[in-house]
Amino acid sequence: MNNIRHLVKAFFYSLAGLGFALSETAFRQELVLFALLAPVGIWLGQTPAEKALLVGSLLLVLAVELINSAIEAAIDRLSSEPHPLSGRAKDMGSAAVFIAIINVIVVWFVIVVVPAFT
């Protein structure tokens, strides 16, 4: 029974986190792109694996953006004064989102564009 209670609490904590994320402009923008591109990925994917890769690459951007926002919130909570390590942490979180976006481009290119030229 404790395990079920823990899972229920975790579920509601996750929903709260998503609610907080919706206040972030970058997350909302990426969520709109997900809503637009996920159906396209499902339509363009020829196999279940391709569909999963196309949609999964988009989900990865959202997940990394959540982590980036969490890093930024934690840094802002610690201090509002500029510090090189704070800037480094925020920049690295942003770089992680950038890499996830590059992953989307590579996955979509390999699955959608490359076959059109072979």
Structural write-up:
The chain is built from four helices and no strands. It has 118 residues and is mostly helical. It has a single domain, classed as Orthogonal Bundle (Helix Hairpins), CATH 1.10.287.3610. Helix 2 packs antiparallel against helix 3 and helix 3 packs antiparallel against helix 4. The longest helix has 31 residues. The mean pLDDT is 96.
Could you give a short account of the major beta sheet? none
CATH topology: Helix Hairpins
Class by SSE composition: mainly alpha
Q: Which CATH class is shown?
A: Mainly Alpha
Structural Rg: 18 Å
Feature tags:
Helix Hairpins, flat, single chain, mainly alpha, 118 residues
Write the layout of secondary structure elements.
Blueprint: H1 2-21, H2 25-44, H3 48-78, H4 84-113
Helix pairs in contact: 2-3, 3-4
What is shown here, in short?
By secondary structure, the protein is mainly α. The chain is 86% helix and 0% strand.
